[in-house]
UniProtKB/TrEMBL annotation:
It comes from Tengunoibacter tsumagoiensis. Coiled coil: none annotated. GO terms for cellular component: membrane. Residues 57-170 form the AB hydrolase-1 domain. GO terms for biological process: acylglycerol catabolic process. This is AB hydrolase-1 domain-containing protein. SUPFAM superfamilies: alpha/beta-Hydrolases (SSF53474). Gene3D superfamilies: alpha/beta hydrolase.
Amino acid sequence: MLEPRSSFVATDAVRLHYLEWNPVASSVAQAEEQWKPDNVETLSAINEQSNDNDAVPLILLHGLGATADTWRLVANHLGQQRQVFAFDLRGHGASEQSADGYDLITVAEDVISGMARLGLGQVALVGHGWGARVALVIASRHQALISHLILIDCPHVEPRHWPGMTRERFIREQMEPEIYVSRARYLQEWQNELDPIWSPMIEEIVMTYVTLLSDGRLVNLLQAEHQRQIRSSLWDDRAVSYYPRLQCPVLLIPAASQPIPGEEPPEHLEQAAEFSAAKGQMAAQVARAIPHCSVYWMAETAHDIQLQRPQLLADIMLAFLHPLKETFADESLTFNTLFLN
């Protein structure tokens, strides 16, 4: 498992924690650890790799309540070929918990400021869930800085369009629990969702989303008030207005099956199957509104695709970013077979 570098960057407004995977640094460190006089050519080849400028860095943005660690399994594959940065967004993980500033635009500008402080120019941008909505805002507002945009199970269906949904109900009823009675109960909820791919590494990842109290209970690192501000911003936001403004190639990866032509959208959004069907319908509509868009339909997959199918997700991302150059664990995967317009 590739271990990232953990550090902080001071943006214009808040201090953000981030993880960085650097394939050149990792390769050099490994070669130097096993250094022998006859491996000078290997070190030279690795150093030449550092001058390969056609591979822009990747920025990974996590979902609501998660942390940069949610990308560890995917970055273990991506980080062997690309420089990868994953931020803890404002109020999440080890990043600063400001009293306000949790609307999508402010959180998006945190990322842009962090990129500038790290000396990053153009990047490929990846977002999951709420982080995909943040990524969407970034790509529409800072078009020259984004070479590619990948939206993983993005909530395209705006909550105001859910049958029977009101602003108050969305903010109140859809919020994640703030406190869990025990570590065992918290982990069991996750294991129920991700069984049978549950592993010690996934357990380690989801434990970064919470902190342990002295009485044995667990509390989310994302505070309830900050989560309310985020959900309020999601209610007010008009995601559909961003899509026509996107100029870079875009890849949608919904956790849904491709809709059958002529299929009617679900009348209710209460069950998981209904949400999945609605996500598929909306992703198909959104894809038609984006100038340069591809879709990979990730059927029979949980929302947290990055935990459930990290190798496949990494291969899909690399195929999209550089279809003629990247190689995959599954040799049957090609750009043409992966993507549907």
